[in-house]
Design goal:
The protein is α+β, with helices and mostly antiparallel strands. It has 2 domains: 114 residues, Class II aldolase/adducin N-terminal domain (L-fuculose-1-phosphate Aldolase); 157 residues, 3-Layer(aba) Sandwich (L-fuculose-1-phosphate Aldolase), CATH 3.40.225. The protein is 38% helix and 17% strand. It contains 10 helices and 9 strands. Strands 2-5-4-3-1-6-9-8-7 form a 9-stranded mixed β-sheet, with helices on both faces. Strand 4 and strand 5 form a beta hairpin.
């Protein structure tokens, strides 16, 4: 067997969590990531017949039976992942009953996956139903996007439109817009179900007054998606109190979207 610490999926988790902590997106134990892995690739590093222990998931994930994920742990700090990945990360497989996860590696201190695991798995199921290539679900607390929640209407069309106006790249990077949920209790199946419902239409879902969920085909795409939304929110927060002399017109957003061949939410634009 190869050394699991050299696996690209472990390396990606180490680098991404460190970067997210550095940016201030994941203070303390805030935030979590789950990454759907290829079974054949994992088998190069682990004996897939060896189950360390079983962990109840607290919900039914039958569509994901047999799927393997590397996921951050509950109560774990992103700043510690790179130094001690085997304690702060775990690799789990959804068991045949759909309600149990088999631990294949990690959580060596007896820990378990993030409390948002149900929300992650529900989001994976939702995204896979519309995009079979989806692999990553990422939750974090980007400072400017969170600040924007307090001073902007939490209406999906209006929220998205404001973000699209902030950077030329925005409508190209997230043409599907940004979904918005009202404040809900985190760590529950209820918020997981609500997020998954939004994930059918959006790859970015804002949890009002809390943070954001992002989904993508790989780690770079998902990180870059949230990074772009956060950059737009930062520009908004830097300029919201100032008179607006210039802006990106809706007609120009259409030109951008059509030039880059992306399918965008036309109903979020204000065209005459």
């Amino acid at each position: 067997m190869k050394d699991i610490l050299t696996a690209i999926f472990v390396t990606e988790m180490r680098k991404t969590t460190a970067n997210m902590y550095r940016l201030g997106w994941d203070e303390r134990n805030g935030g979590n990531i789950s990454y759907l892995l290829d079974e054949a690739e994992v088998a190069e590093y682990l004996d897939l017949k060896k189950v360390i222990r079983e962990i109840p998931t607290g919900f039914d994930a039958k569509p994901l039976i047999g799927k393997i994920f590397i996921v951050t742990g509950t109560g774990k700090y992103f700043k510690n992942v790179d130094e001690d990945p085997e304690t702060n990360l775990g690799i789990v497989r959804i068991k045949e009953d759909g309600t149990t996860a088999e631990l294949l590696w990690g959580f060596k201190d007896g820990g378990k996956f993030t409390s948002e695991f149900p929300a992650h798995m529900m989001s994976h199921m939702a995204r896979l139903s519309v995009d079979p290539q989806n692999r990553v679900v990422m939750h974090c607390h980007p400072t400017n996007l969170l600040a924007m929640n307090y001073v902007h209407e939490l209406d999906e069309a209006k929220f998205t439109h404001t973000l699209w106006e902030m950077c030329t790249e925005c409508i190209v990077v997230f043409p599907d817009g940004v979904g918005v949920l009202p404040w809900m209790l985190c760590g529950t199946n209820e918020i997981g179900e609500a997020t998954a419902k939004k994930m059918k239409d959006f790859r970015v879902v804002v949890w009002a007054l809390h943070g954001v969920y992002g989904a993508g085909k790989d780690m770079d795409e998902t990180f870059g998606l949230i990074e772009t939304v956060e950059k737009a929110a930062e520009i908004f927060m830097l300029t919201a109190h100032l008179p607006r002399l210039n802006t990106i017109k809706d007609e120009d957003m259409v030109k951008l979207a059509e030039h880059f061949g992306v399918k965008y939410r036309k109903d979020f634009l204000r065209l005459k």
